[in-house]
Design brief:
The protein has 129 residues and is an alpha+beta fold. Helix content is 37%, strand content 28%. It has three helices and six strands; from the N terminus they run ββαβαβαββ. The two termini are 47 Å apart.
Length: 129
């Protein structure tokens, strides 16, 4: 097995290839275990969501952000409620504004079919010194 091909002369070592493959797999498995998995939580609103429901979902969103999850909030338009696109956008912008100290906006409100979607990710926690 070649250790340092650029050296003069090249450095090589004789090893058991199966052992080398086993150790390589083991290293990859450890790295995979240490990697953080991104969790995306979805929060659904209607275009005419009332204050109590809004506050309830806002509280849940804050919990999700404190746990380190990303949030995908969307307003779902059914039937003729697509006429209230502006209300949906205002609702999502208000939601992002209320979560300003907990999250940053990844994607501004955007209409995709019958849904208007906004994506938020948690702000990094500052370490106290």
């Amino acid at each position: 097995m070649e250790i340092s091909p650029n050296a003069e002369p090249p450095v090589c070592r004789i090893t058991d290839y199966q052992k080398f493959l086993y150790q390589q797999k083991k290293r990859e498995k450890e790295l995979k275990a240490k990697a953080t998995k991104v969790v995306v939580k979805e929060i659904r609103f209607g275009p005419q969501t009332d204050d109590h429901d809004y506050n309830f979902k806002l509280k849940h969103a804050i919990e999700f952000l404190n746990d380190g999850s990303k949030i995908k909030a969307y307003v779902f338009f059914k039937g003729r409620s697509i006429l209230f696109k502006e209300q949906g956008e205002v609702l999502l912008l208000r939601f992002a504004n209320d979560l300003e100290e907990y999250a940053k906006v990844d994607q501004l409100p955007q209409l995709e079919g019958k849904r208007m979607i906004i994506q938020l990710s948690p702000k990094k926690k500052e370490s106290k010194k």
